[in-house]
Amino acid sequence: MTLDVALLRTAFPSLASGIAHFDGPGGTQTPLAVGQAILDTLTGPLSNRGTSVASERRADDAVVAFRAAMADLLAADPSGIVYGRSATQLTYDFAKHLSRGWTAGDEVVVSRLDHDANVRPWVQAAERAGATVRWIELDAATGELDLESLDATLGERTRLVAVTAASNLLGTIPPVRTIADRAHAVGALVWVDGVHYTAHHVVDVDALGADFFVCSPYKFFGPHCGVLAASPALLESIHPDKLLPSTNVVPERFEFGTLPYELMAGVTAAIGVLASIDPGDATTRRDRLVASAAAVHERELALRTRIEDALAELGPLVELHSRAAERTATLFMTFPGRRAADAAAFLAARDVLAPAGSFYAVEPFAALGLDDVGGLRVGVAPYTSDEDVDRLLDGIRAFLAG
Hints:
This protein is an alpha/beta fold. About 40% of the residues lie in helices and about 15% in strands.
């Protein structure tokens, strides 16, 4: 199982720019096949969904194909796949839907590891309902969640636990299934932010123990949008505000207005590209996705290890904050006595894109004690080449030597 990076890179016209992209956690580059699917859908015969003519059927086919493709990617039920403008929008929407039943004395659990999109919607919804917010703490020394603090947060009034499947800042992969089992034991729902995780690992929503799982296709080659996966039965129990004539059918009743059929087609195409990376002898799309993800993971781990080893040679000039035992190929670092923003600018002048900042990860950034200091984030993607890594490391060395 060896990923052919050179072949994969030919699918991405933007890589001809010469930029070495380490900004994957913020959004990947887009394959030509995805852009073509969007173009073909948008410029072909296209109407609102229906069955009477080809343009109506084309719209309906785009929606059905999108739900089926996302279901294969997440090992979910197509009838539980909800389209959204973004993962943030979906989380805010469902925070509103779910919090209708919360009252004073109820409790909501969030974590210090999460992107703010899986913190603030729940905190704000709890405040409106008069519910109490409790926190799973982050051990800054290890980059791991403190599960003892989880046990202290859970009780008979816990209504929901929100946790990331992988940190967009540190790459940390917490034990989601363990957290979910403990939450379910007290009758709480579990909302999992899978935005960063989905780009790097095989997803099985049920195996994770997630009642709700959100992700963002633009993190794995697709267009800018968000997706929620949940069981249709659970979605049936939730009643959002909606227009009187709009359907009450699940999952459509959570999708407001006319759907962007062209973006849905782009997502389906992106999943097709993911499945084609290194499918081996697999025949079903799900099996091709699993095989390809394994090849990507092996490659990304090798590149991450190579970068970590090179940074270790620089000693105290670099402080690597990504330390968890299980994590993605995403590294967050600071440079004692130097500004990470200066490092990012130095690298950008060499066409190496590794941005600096806190990346909306307000809580983990603060837990690390970096409130006033930015960090450099390096994210490896499936199309990252060995030459890209050479340029990154040479750039960091040159910056530190300057």
